[in-house]
Specification:
The chain has 144 residues and is an alpha/beta fold. The protein has helices at residues 14-28, 66-75, 96-108, 129-136, and strands at 3-8, 32-37, 52-60, 63-64, 84-91, 114-122. Helix 3 links the parallel strand 5 (84-91) and strand 6.
Length: 144
């Protein structure tokens, strides 16, 4: 059975809500999921125990949240080749979350992880985002 970990940063709760929607979708696909806020995740070495790693940040002044960026710098040197990456972000503008997703991917590139999905929303995730998540995270991505 595949295992996934979702690690996110949040201030207002919007990114946490998006993380929960991603968790729900992965569980629907029979993937075991663990979810952590970045400041509560200390077992960096355990990342190798997961097949799928999902990382998410809100937008702060058109940047990745600074605390989350520091967290990403701690893990981007790990060898994560063969792992799948799902990135997600929230922001106040339709242009902000795609930028944050791209920035997370750039930071994680040295790890060798393979990006399979980018998900974002403006402000709080709404129920209509579930359909987009279903389209973006399909069982075909994991060869289930």
């Amino acid at each position: 059975m595949l295992k996934a970990i979702i690690i996110y940063h949040t201030r207002t709760g919007n990114t946490k809500s998006l993380a929960e929607k991603i968790k729900k979708r992965l569980e629907y696909l029979n993937i075991v999921v663990e979810v952590y806020q970045d400041n509560n995740f200390k077992a960096l070495d355990s990342l190798n125990d997961f097949d799928i790693i999902s990382l998410g940040s809100p937008t702060h002044y058109w940047q990745i949240a600074s605390d989350f960026k520091e967290f990403l710098k701690k893990i981007n040197g790990f060898n994560l080749k063969g792992k799948k990456l799902i990135v997600f972000a929230t922001g106040v503008s339709p242009k902000s979350h795609p930028k944050i997703c791209s920035d997370i991917i750039k930071i994680m590139k040295p790890s060798g992880i393979d990006t399979i999905a980018k998900i974002g929303c403006v402000k709080e995730p709404t129920d209509d985002l579930d359909t987009k998540i279903e389209q973006v995270i399909s069982k075909d991505l994991f060869q289930i």
